[in-house]
Design a protein that fits this description.
By secondary structure, this protein is α/β, with parallel strands linked by helices. Helix content is 43%, strand content 15%. The chain is built from 15 helices and 15 strands. It has helices at 3-9, 14-18, 21-35, 61-70, 83-92, 116-130, 144-152, 163-173, 183-192, 236-245, 259-264, 271-280, 293-302, 326-337, 349-365, and strands spanning 39-40, 42-44, 57-59, 76-78, 98-100, 134-139, 156-158, 176-180, 200-204, 209-211, 221-224, 250-253, 267-268, 286-290, 307-310. The strands form four sheets. The protein has a six-stranded mixed sheet, sandwiched between helices. A four-stranded parallel sheet has the order 13-12-14-15. Helix 3 (21-35) packs parallel to helix 14, helix 4 (61-70) packs parallel to helix 5 and helix 8 (163-173) packs across helix 9. The two termini are 35 Å apart. The structure holds 1,3-dihydroxyacetonephosphate (13P) and iron/sulfur cluster. Residues 82, 108-110, 141, 228-230, 256, 292, 318, 320-321 line the site of iron/sulfur cluster (SF4). Iminosuccinate binds at residues 44, 61, 139-141, 160, 254-256, 271. [4Fe-4S] cluster binds at residues 108, 228, 318. Catalyzes the condensation of iminoaspartate with dihydroxyacetone phosphate to form quinolinate. Keywords: 4Fe-4S, Cytoplasm, Iron, Iron-sulfur, Metal-binding, Pyridine nucleotide biosynthesis, Transferase. Its cofactor is [4Fe-4S] cluster.
């Protein structure tokens, strides 16, 4: 499907725009009840508040992958998250199950920073430089095609909640790893495992070249030059402001933030870790949170006994996660109810075969 067709397919019928919130909530509730166990709605922590109440499961990327792998019952999986998550769910579920993304424009700018053609151009160059010493490892925030390449070459996927464990395993398999597409998660994880920054190189996919000043033999980690456009908005200056104005605040950030920010924070971890750590903290504690704005807003609502702020007061939500709203959810559910198929996410068989190797390796190691 080309871009124009995608956009046309997503032109919402006018009637959804004229419905009130109350009418939409009533319809979604009614259809959910009618479809029963035939419908499953997994929802990522970054989803909008108007969608979250309809989730059958809410979680971080690892939890959502594990949940998708377990659910063999629901014929329809309506994924409230972004495209790579729906692809992952499709690959981990049976051929009879149908995964739908309520709005096809819900992509991930970080996943889009690693294109399979860039990777197939990079790989032979890296083999020439380093020989057969590299294990590819990809963050789950990547396309199915990237996961497939990684799986075919003996590598694995990781998420922010299992990265330390999996990267540690990867470094036991080969002399060095090639970490895609998030340089920050890769750098933060490798550093935590004791690898100095001087032993990490950058792969520039636009120039198709390695950026590294050191001796090639010392290079243990090659980081794809990708990043999350949401988490790059948390800065050292934000941390300094919190330390100055709220000296009792603990700062917790997502590892997609830069190494400087993660190093200066008190703690870092996946969305699940952030949610759990704050909800388990003592009443009266103070927190500055460096992650996506919808989630920070929800943590604030769910913890009225604590003082919680966003690390960056001018933070915006992830705009692609935000594409999934109540009208799109309702439109999708009504299509299912009418026996129509819109926005199915289907990964082809060959891609799935190898991508599953990478995903299953991760699930076994987690
Ligand atoms: P986690 O929920 O795994 O921490 O991932 C965050 C994220 O950026 C998802 O796109
Ligand atoms: Fe992608 Fe960042 Fe949005 Fe997560 S928060 S979906 S990594 S752009």
């Amino acid at each position: 499907m080309n871009l124009l067709e995608t956009v046309e397919q997503d032109t919402m019928p006018a009637r959804y725009k004229s419905m009130t919130q109350t009418e939409m909530i009533a319809r979604v509730t009614e259809i959910k009840a009618q479809l029963g166990d035939n419908l499953f709605i997994p929802c990522h922590h970054y989803q909008k508040d108007e969608v979250v109440p309809f989730a059958d499961a809410i979680g971080d990327s690892l939890q959502l992958a594990q949940i998708a792998a377990k659910n063999k019952k629901a014929k329809h999986i309506v994924f409230c998250g972004v495209h790579f998550m729906a692809e992952t769910a499709d690959m981990l579920t049976t051929n009879e199950q149908i995964v739908t993304l309520p709005d096809m424009r819900a992509g991930c700018s970080m996943a889009d920073m690693a294109d399979i053609h860039q990777l197939t151009n990079a790989w032979p160059k890296l083999q020439t430089l380093f020989g057969d010493t590299i294990l590819p490892v990809t963050y789950i925030n990547s396309t199915a095609a990237i996961k497939s390449f990684v799986g075919e070459h003996g590598g694995t996927t990781v998420t922010s909640s299992n990265a330390t464990k999996i990267v540690s395993w990867a470094l036991e398999q080969k002399e060095r790893i090639f970490f895609l597409p998030d340089q920050h998660l890769g750098r933060n994880t490798a550093f935590e495992l004791g690898i100095p920054l001087e032993h990490m190189a950058i792969w520039n996919p636009i120039k198709n070249e390695l950026e590294y000043d050191g001796n090639l033999a010392d290079c243990k980690v090659i980081l794809w030059k990708g990043y999350c456009s949401v988490h790059q908005h948390f800065t050292v200056k934000n941390i300094e402001n919190i330390r100055k104005n709220h000296p009792n605040m603990r700062i917790i950030v997502h590892p997609e933030c830069t190494h400087e920010v993660v190093s200066l924070a008190d703690d870092s971890g996946s969305t699940k870790k952030i949610v759990t750590e704050i909800s388990n903290a003592a009443p009266g504690t103070e927190w500055a949170v460096g992650t996506e704005a919808n989630l920070v807003g929800r943590i604030i609502q769910e913890n009225p006994d604590k003082k919680i702020v966003s690390l960056n007061p001018f933070m915006c939500p992830c705009m692609t996660m935000n594409r999934i709203d109540l009208p799109h959810l309702l439109w999708t559910l009504e299509a299912i109810q009418n026996g129509e198929q819109r926005n199915q996410i289907k990964v082809d068989e060959q891609t799935t075969t190898f991508a599953l190797k990478a995903l299953e390796r991760m699930l076994q190691l987690s």
